[in-house]
Structures are given as C-alpha cells and as structure tokens.
Amino acid sequence: MTGTVAVLRHPDRDVLVQATAARLVTRLVDLQQNGRVPTLALTGGTVATEIYAAVAASPAARAVDWGRVEVWWGDERFVPAEDDERNDRQARTALLDGLPLDPERVHPMPASDGPLTDLDAAASDYARRLRESTAERFDLVLLGVGPDGHVASLFPGFPQLEVEDTGAVAVRNSPKPPPERISLTFPALERTNELWFLVSGAEKADAVRRALAPGTDPHDTPAARPRGACRTLWLLDEAAASALG
C-alpha cells in the first residue's frame, strides 16, 4: 500500500535546493519532536550534494539533534573509501563531517578497499546490517533520477530490478561509471514512510514524465516504481518538470 504522490515545481534549481534543504530540516525536527530517532537514506548526485550543503549553511539546522539521526545510503559506488565518486564521501564533505553525529548511527556502504573487497559479500553485509537495524522502516528515503530513468543504482533492464527482498544487491557493468556498485532493492527503498525524488535539469524531463505516467513499466523506467508508504514527493525545478505540461 502506498500513500499520496505530489509533484512540487520550483522556478529554478537554486530555489529547489534551498526549499528542499528547509523541508528536510523541518521534517527532521518534526520527527524528533514526536519522539522518533529519524532514520533516512541519502542519495548521491549533484543536486543532492547542493541540498546537503544548503542544510549545512542553514541556521535552522541547529534545531536538529543530529546525535539522534540515523543515516543510511540508497546506493554507493564500489570504489575506495576516499574516492570522490563515493556518495558517502560527497555527503560527508558537504554536510555530515560538520555535524555532531553519533558514529554508531551512520551506516556507509562498504568501500572496495575495506575489509570486504568482494562486491557480492559487501552487498550481502549491507543487507544484513539493514535487517538487523532497530528501525522497522526508514522515515525518509531521498532519490535522484537519471536521464534513463534509473534510481539508486537500479538501471533499466538490469536483473536487480527483479529482486524482491528488502536488502541490497551487487551491480556490475553499470552503464554509468564506475561499473561496480551496491544498491538497495526496490522493496528496501519502499520500506519508508516518505520518499522524495530530487530532480533538476531539462535532460531529466522525459524520465520524470515517464515515471509519473500511469502504466509505465519499471523495467524500462525504474523511477516509476518506488513509492513511500505515507507520501511520495517529486521535488522538481521547472526544467525537470517541463515535459509534464
């Protein structure tokens, strides 16, 4: 069962970034005021990194008790830990390294130069950690969308789209470098109360249109599938929304 789906259009990329940063801070504060330890899964990509930086620059971010926030990732590039391609390194540089986070509540995916150098073992380990976590579901999952309609590292036509357990999968021969990745499965991404798509740019417009069109096959446009149990927000700038009419 999925909740409501809403499309929120912003006049340009900067407004999208600033508005989403404010929305994220507010959501975390609201969850904590209701007694929860917010659990969120971060995404990579340029616009997401800009949003993280906007959160870091916001005075309102001090309203969040960051020591009581649980951080996971929706996907990761299987490269060395200090590689700038890694989603967790981008998030740390833009935001996380400047926050008083509890290290025990931050759960990066394995790196290729870590203890688990085998991609399948690394994906299985992340799936195990997710299963053993205390959170029944995420409060919020953030996702980007590629021009081909991929989300996380779930690409059109790839066999990982068929996996129906709430875990993580190894991805090889990614059409977008680097070739080796780890991704949460569709059911794992949908194990969330809210899911926000963060999309900017005219090159994403057709993928957004396809993802929101009734009856689109997720095997062709993976972004057509993930939905939050309570709410799904498509946070777009006008360029990304331009094919919606």
Task: Describe the 3D structure.
- This protein is α/β, with parallel strands linked by helices and 245 residues long.
- The chain is built from six helices and nine strands.
- It has a single domain, classed as Rossmann fold (3-Layer(aba) Sandwich), CATH 3.40.50.
- Helix 1 packs across helix 2 (46-57).
- The longest helix has 21 residues, at 13-33.
- The mean pLDDT is 97.
Helix content: 25-40%
Order of adjacent strands in the largest pleated sheet: 1-9-8-5-2-3
Would you state the CATH class?
Answer: Alpha Beta
Summed over residues and divided by their number, the pLDDT gives a mean of 97
CATH architecture: 3-Layer(aba) Sandwich
CATH topology value: Rossmann fold
Strand content: 15-25%
- The total strand number stands at 9
Structural class: alpha/beta
- The CA-CA distance between the termini, in Å, is 28 Å
Number of domains: 1
Q: What is the succession of H and E elements?
A: EHEHEEHHEEEHEHE
**Largest beta-sheet details:** 6 strands, parallel
